[in-house]
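ARCHIVE RECORD
Type: protein–small molecule complex
Small molecule: zinc ion
Source of inputs: curated submission
Record status: active
Notes field left blank by submitter.
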Amino acid sequence: MTALFGKSNNLMRMRTWYGMTAVIEIRNRSLHRAGFGSVLIPHPPAVNWLLRFGLSDDPYYKLSTIHEFGHFQTLPAIAVYSFAALGWVLATHRASLIGIIALLIGIHATWEMLAELVVRFHTGPLYTRTYTGISVIPRIIFWSAAAAISIGGWAILLH
Ligand SMILES: [Zn+2]
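STRUCTURE (tokenized, with ligand):
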């Protein structure tokens, strides 16, 4: 697996369930890129940094790749959720700028949880085995923070 990522410009192509091919590049531990075709969005892998805390390169790359892919697999669901939420907010005139920003941040946190759920379902018992001997605290921080931010977005919006 390491060899796959050994080169600096090695792109992974994975086909989503809705037929589009996602392109993922886990360049290193501080830069990931993901997108469709030649449109790749670079981003600092903050969530993967937290979730993969303590893992060696091999499982880091493997689980991070599936996590990025999980974002694509759940993109239609999160898009429907975003449009429904924003549509409802605008229709009910609850739209304050702070509220909408909080909602968008909350939706992103929900998306992070969905992407990691894809990793869990995709890897099954391997997920638990991979983390044997590694502190659970970073993962507890991730799940509780992401859940709190998801709910917090709505709480700020509806306040
Ligand atoms: Zn993510």
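CURATOR ANNOTATION: Residues 1-8 have pLDDT under 50 and may be disordered.
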